[in-house]
Design brief:
CATH architecture of the largest domain: 2-Layer Sandwich
Oligomer: single chain
Largest sheet: 5 strands, mixed
Shape: rod-shaped
CATH superfamily of the largest domain: Translation initiation factor 3 (IF-3), C-terminal domain
Order of helices and strands: EEHEEHEHEHEEE
Radius of gyration: 36 Å
């Protein structure tokens, strides 16, 4: 008589693991200690060239034997930093390495700030702008100028309000006066169509 075995609904082979058996554990790679970030420049004994061209302070610029410059660096308690490794011979500088990195980061930040495109911020008034709204917009404009942006303020005249153009001129001149500590007008208020404009540029930092 044939024996009917229970069917496997997923057509999988029966589990062959018996009690006490376990799955093989994945092997971990050997511990190699904390990962260190690769240093950006060769410094001191890490410099492999036998001769280097030295520039900067604390030394007469020229080509020196590397051991001699390293001895000078130890005497001055600073570092020998390789700044142009592809030159022949490599160019190095005597300087504290942390100070070198700080100066370079500062110069990069200044260059980035200088290359940033200057934005034009617009401020809108009406001939009947009240003091609260005026002072609020002056405060925002000061922040814009501090950030190095230009401010273009204009008075919008609607319908017959154009008859009060002189009122708009007085308002814009007052606006420029409030900002004189932070910016200078490019020109006097100018009427174009039904708008009167004045543009104020930030003062250059000394």
């Amino acid at each position: 008589m044939a024996t009917n075995f229970p069917t496997n609904p997923n057509n999988r082979p029966p589990n062959t693991f018996t009690s006490g058996s376990s799955y093989p554990k994945p092997q971990r790679p050997p511990y190699r200690g904390p990962q260190r970030k690769e240093q950006e420049h060769r410094i001191n004994e890490g410099i492999t060239a036998t001769k280097v061209r030295v520039v900067g302070e604390n030394i007469e610029p020229g080509v020196y034997d590397t051991p001699k410059v390293l001895a000078m660096a130890r005497q001055l308690e600073i570092d020998l930093v390789e700044i142009s490794p592809n030159a022949d011979p490599p160019v190095c500088r005597l300087i504290d390495y942390n100070k070198f990195l700080y100066e370079r980061k500062r110069k990069e930040k200044e260059a980035k700030a200088a290359s940033k495109a200057q934005e034009m911020k617009e401020i809108r008034f009406t001939p009947n702008t009240d003091d609260h709204d005026f002072n609020f917009k002056v405060k925002h404009s000061i922040n814009f100028l501090k950030e190095g942006n230009k401010v273009r303020a204009y008075v919008q005249f609607k319908g017959r309000a154009i008859a009060y153009a002189d009122r708009g001129q007085v308002l814009l001149l007052k606006f420029a006066q409030e900002l004189e500590e932070y910016g200078v007008p490019d020109q006097l208020p100018k009427l174009e169509g039904k708008k009167m404009f004045i543009t104020i540029a930030p003062k250059k930092k000394k």
